[in-house]
Design brief:
Oligomer: homotetramer
Strand content of chain A: under 5%
Number of strands of chain A: 0
Helix content of chain A: 55-70%
Radius of gyration of chain A: 19 Å
CATH architecture of the largest domain in chain A: Orthogonal Bundle
Structural class of chain A: mainly alpha
Number of helices of chain A: 9
CATH class of the largest domain in chain A: Mainly Alpha
DNA sequence: AATGAATGAGTCTTCATTCAT
DNA sequence: AATGAATGAAGACTCATTCAT
């Protein structure tokens, strides 16, 4: 009688993660209820708690997975033979392909300082810090190679992330959603070239 | 004997606004409880409701005040005789002076997309939209005068705001807090000049 | 400078009683707020508390006054020379003239069992009991004189009150509001004559 | 070991309805707190909300059930072959059998006009209107058949209900509680025969 | 004496978490 | 192992009452 549905047992964990990911992205952390997640995942509410001790842990797992995935994408794309800006834009291009899947989560993690005490203050910044550290390493190299102007690599990496997030943000209706190509072009314009007339 | 406390009776509304402002900035909208605000303001819970019909209205008032204040600062500082970048940096400089008072709120309003149905959908974006519109107008002028490179004024204004907020953000411990002078210098560097070696 | 309003100081207590009376009748006990009463009476909220220790006491006073007023009306109208049914209808006629002023309160006192523990359980029934006792006395006499059929005077009095209240009730939209004359006619029909075909 | 408690899981909804019914009858709508109901029903407060969206809906359900039950009783008892007064008294007799179970609720619905805006204005009168309409239909027939004196059927039905409620009321300690037989006898006396000596 | 701003106990309602099945 | 009915702590909001002016 289980044959009718016939899901491999290990499916359930992934289903939960994906449903939760979508919910967090769409409604935010607090506004997402465990009922919602269970319903969306097509599992019982109790099932979630067999995988994750609580809501917070579920959220953290999503964030952790995201970091790993982003790193993997970056590593896969990076070509040491190419100049920094090519690599940077190349990676952005790859990441943008995933935008539908986790772009919103990136945005969420950026936007949500919205957490009670339980959700450890800096906990969320794990994502950003991890990304920034990663980029900063490459910025350092690029500076050393004279490929970009001299600057604080950490701060520059941070500004890059913010600009990327600003351009890809779909939530605020402050600007039209940009397609991948536009994001790349504008990123190059604002981040690399600058506004000043030469 | 009253001299120790000695608050003008009309203080209370302001006390509430300031305590709420701090709380919203520190914990976000949802995570801020009215009890908290009352305690922080040193007033009874009911007192808040004599001034504001509900939590949402309290929040909106803070946002509204902020917009007004920012506009006032900008108008006061703007000198049509000066070139765009000077005005831009001048205004930033002025606004930065207020950072302690409401910088956090700016950040909050940017970060909190975290609202259920009650908090009118785009309602919060009022702040950003208002600021962006304002800047966009001046960007337009600057482009017309050839003071900056040709670009979509709205998008450029939006990116400027995001960069400014990124640099002044104190919440994320992703970079050391910068003092006013540093913010200005970095803003010039990242926003106007760009990273690319010339 | 007080001359502009120029109310005799003793006015205030009566103003409060009347405003409260109207409010209780219109909205019920719980749904009537002290703010409402104060506003309607044109006095400060605190003023109410100089006359009445609390909301309950205010209500009780209204009830007490009402009883007294009803008794006075009855006494004034009663003519021992007339037969019972004439007196009964005569008194009803008098009381009906006051309907605008306190008819609603009578109804309220009947309808509102709606009281927390504070409002002593049977406390409200004071009105009804007082009225019933009064009528019962006269029913007794009437029975003794053979003017009405033999019955339990208390129960008959009680039923009379209920019928009267049912006919004068304006709150339920179960029947069209009846004018004084109609009330009298119907009271005679239902209470004295009965439905049965003879 | 479970035998002592041994409740079928589905019991809970009914437990809540019954506890609420008792509480509403005893204390009224406003004075009944959800905590009280939960405690009285022996369930958690949240449990109530799994069955009823809110307090108002809980109340409405009780009222609705009551109407349905009363109608069912009436239909079951009605015998078109019998004269009106027999049917009327027969139905009363049946309804009286229910008195112990929810007679108080009937009374409540009659007494509580005590509702702010939330509780839909005439919403509560649904019970009475429903009952009155039902009786009125039968009164019409009875008049047509010459079984009772000519009168406005709606008003007569309304008066009958009020008299019935007055006689069965247990809340007011204005008269001794009557047993079923007494209620019937008195109803016949006051409603059908009238007080006047023939 | 009169006021009304201030108060906080008490309400309804939500939702993360548990546990019997 | 999976479930979802049950729970109660916590939050927004109301309003009778107090008290400084």
């Amino acid at each position: 009688m289980e044959t009718m549905i016939d899901r491999k047992p290990t499916d359930r964990r992934k289903q939960v993660l994906e449903a939760a990911s979508r919910s967090f992205a769409a409604f935010g952390y607090k506004a997402t209820t465990m009922d919602q997640v269970a319903k969306a995942a097509g599992v019982g509410k109790g099932t979630i708690y067999t995988f994750f001790a609580n809501k917070e842990e579920l959220f953290e797992q999503i964030v952790k997975d995201l970091i790993a995935e982003l790193k993997a994408v970056a590593e896969r794309t990076l070509d040491p033979a190419l100049p920094f800006s090519d690599n940077l834009l190349g990676i952005l291009q790859q990441v943008l392909a995933y935008r539908d899947r986790h772009g919103l989560v990136v945005k969420l993690s950026q936007e949500v300082k919205e957490f009670g005490t339980p959700m450890a203050k800096g906990g969320l910044e794990a994502v950003e810090r991890s990304i920034v550290d990663y980029i900063a390493g490459h910025v350092s190299d690029a500076i050393a190679k004279g490929e970009v102007r001299r600057s604080d690599p950490a701060l520059t990496a941070y500004m890059m992330l913010k600009m990327y997030l600003a351009l890809t943000a779909e939530g605020d209706h402050l600007h039209e959603p940009l397609d991948a190509e536009q994001v790349l072009a504008h990123f190059r314009f604002y981040c690399l070239e600058g506004l000043a007339v030469v």
